Amino acid sequence: VEPRASMKVLFWGTPEFAVPALRALTEEGQEVVGVVTQPDRRAGRGLAVAVSAVKEVALAEQIPILQPEHAHGDEFLAAIQALEPDISVVVAYGQMLMPEILAVPRLGSVNIHASLLPELRGAAPIHWAIIRGYQTTGITIQRMEKGLDSGPILSQVADPIQPDESMSELAERLAEIVAEAIIEAMALLENGSLAERPQDHERASYAPKLDRETARLDW
């Protein structure tokens, strides 16, 4: 059996949630030509400079790292074009991407979102699935477009939420599901056998970023 040719992947991600997907891509022999992650930030009581979980993996794997304050502009566009990616894979990166950025790879850009789209579009789908009492959530791999998590669906995996499950526990499990799903999707994308289906936009719901007011419990 001939080995499957690897694809040149530009990976976008920032938090721990994105790490299993990045590790899966490298372990499965995909060529991760670059990692785009958020700039280092000062955090904690001592305001020490903290690097993202994804950057830590990229450093260990010696993958080129890009950390733009804003992921657009001619200089950044030229930098990712120079990497000649076949596909962009985005997992919890943290910024909206412009159409000219999404169009750089020959196979376009896919996003992995932690809900069953079109439900819970937005920044905090895992939090809101629990807050709103969902019994089932999951992950969606979708073709990216200009809108917020509105692109065609490539694949979905549903997963039940346990009655006593915390956000971090659910996120950890969904991250592992993401890692398995993206490997399968990559193989199907490369040979053109992954069908796209449009979202039903009338069913869309939203999971906005949590702020301190939203997170405060009214006992």
Distance between the termini: 62 Å
Q: Mind describing the biggest β-sheet?
A: 7 strands, mixed
Q: If you average the pLDDT, what whole number results?
A: 92
- Number of strand elements: 9
Name the shape in a single word.
globular
Q: What Rg do the Cα atoms give?
A: 17 Å
Biggest β-sheet: strands ordered side by side in the sheet: 5-2-1-6-7-8-9
Count up the helices.
Answer: 7
- Ranges where pLDDT stays below 50 over 5 or more residues in a row are none
Helix percent reads 25-40%
Question: Multimeric state of these chains?
Answer: single chain
Short key terms for the protein model shown above:
alpha/beta, 7-stranded mixed β-sheet, 7 helices, 219 residues
Please give a structural write-up:
With 219 residues, the protein is of the alpha/beta class. The protein is 30% helix and 21% strand. The protein has seven helices and nine strands. The strands form two sheets. A seven-stranded mixed beta sheet has the order 5-2-1-6-7-8-9. A two-stranded antiparallel ribbon has the order 3-4. Helix 1 packs parallel to helix 6 (167-190). 36% of the residues are buried.
Brief write-up:
The protein is of the alpha/beta class and 219 residues long. The chain has helices spanning 19-27, 53-61, 74-82, 99-102, 125-131, 167-190, 212-215, and strands at residues 8-13, 31-36, 41-43, 48-50, 65-66, 87-91, 109-113, 136-143, 153-160. α1 (19-27) links the parallel β1 (8-13) and β2 (31-36).
